[in-house]
Please model this.
Amino acid sequence: MANPDDPFLKTCQKCKTSCCKMGGSDLTEKEVRRILKANHPNFFRKIGKDHYEMKSKKGICPYLNKDYSCKIEDTKPLMCRSWPVDPEYKGKKAEFLLMQCPLTQFLTSKQVKEMKKHAGKIKPHIINAAFSESKLSKSDIDLIYKRYQKFKGSKLK
Model:
């Protein structure tokens, strides 16, 4: 259950969790098993070797509550735990962007470092194939990509 006094949740509620409207996370099988083991509903679709995506509708994460809190807060995938730090891979080398979402201004350097650590654990094949291997409809993929483009990122060291 989300803490209604959580300042991060309040910030996310104000922006109506725009990040959760980018299709939901892509995950590994291990992450899927952890979420299902915690008795959360199965909203996953296998799209490649050790690569799953969430079955979203109109790009909205199926685990998003009406109050903009997360139904799987206790077992969030790496992509969610790392946001607003976003990894990009150039070959096997990761570069990290700090995306400008309303939450960014409230993060401490320690929190950003922790998010970068989570982002660094996301497998390159998941990041690189998130759009190209997706089984979502073309209109949903286009919508998700358009929403993602609204976030501006700056490189982290």
